[in-house]
Amino acid sequence: MTVTGIITAIVIGAIIGALGRLALPGRQPIGILLTIGIGIVAALLGTAIAQSVGVATTDGIDWIELVFQIGLAVVGVAAVAAFRRRGHGSHR
Predict the structure, then answer these.
(1) pLDDT per position as a tens digit, 1-23
(2) Integer distance in angstroms from the first to the last C-alpha of the chain?
(3) What are the backbone dihedrals phi and psi of residue 31, each rounded to the nearest 5 degrees, phi first?
(4) Cα–Cα nearest to 67, from 38, 32, 43
């Protein structure tokens, strides 16, 4: 992987993670680095799912792939936020 590839993954991860957070109501107790990490994983998994169902390479913007990626980011952010809320609540 090149430096450009790493930077691209970080930027795409940040965008996908941010869209995942925006799709959830309320405040999520996770930081920007965790959001980017979730976004990177969601982007990779969403692309893999899109490829497995044959919709990863379409003309123009791959909307279905983008929906998979954002959907996975929403699930990831919600899961991590719930885990962190539960973890913080038990320390009181």
Answers:
(1) 688 888 888 899 999 999 999 99
(2) 44
(3) -85, 180
(4) 43
